[in-house]
Amino acid sequence: RPGQGNIMNFFGKK
Amino acid sequence: MLEARLEQASILKKVVDAIKDLVQDCNFDCNDSGIALQAMDNSHVALVSMMLKSDTFSPFRCDRNIALGINLNSFQKVLRCAQNEDILTLKADDSPDVVSLVFESSEQDRISEYDIKLMDIDQEHLGIPDTEYAATITMPSGEFQRICRDLSALSESVAIEAEKNAVKFVCNGDIGNGAISLRNHSSVEKPEQNVNIELSEPVALTFSLKYLVNFCKASGLSGSVKLCLSNEVPLLVEYELASNSYLRFYLAPKIGD
Question: How distant is the Cα of A1 from the closest Cα of chain B, in angstroms?
Answer without folding.
Answer: 9
